[in-house]
Amino acid sequence: MGVPKALSDEEIADHLAGLPGWDRTGHAITRTYEIRYHAAVAAIVTIADRSRRIQHHADLDLRIDHLRASITTHDAGHRITAADFDLAHRIDAIVAAHQALPLD
After folding, report:
1. What is the percentage of the chain residues whose pLDDT exceeds 70?
2. pTM of the predicted model, to two decimals?
3. Which of 8, 11, 27, 60 makes the best surface tag, with the fewest CB within 10 Å?
């Protein structure tokens, strides 16, 4: 399968335009969700399960009133790839299903 291809700055900007709430932070894409603690714990379990299935994982930071996701492709030298955007869409759906209220 090989090493995933890192996206150009223009490709990253194009992908971000179709992914509201996500921002680029260095060589990662990030989003913070305002969500109740226990709902976030349940979301994290689902995110972990889906991540295992697709073999791509996010860094997740849980706090009492929010969850922060940060995604980069480790196999591509910690660069942003198309797989990161696929995972971001999946995380959005999972968090929405766990009653998240995204920050503006």
Report:
1. 94
2. 0.91
3. 8
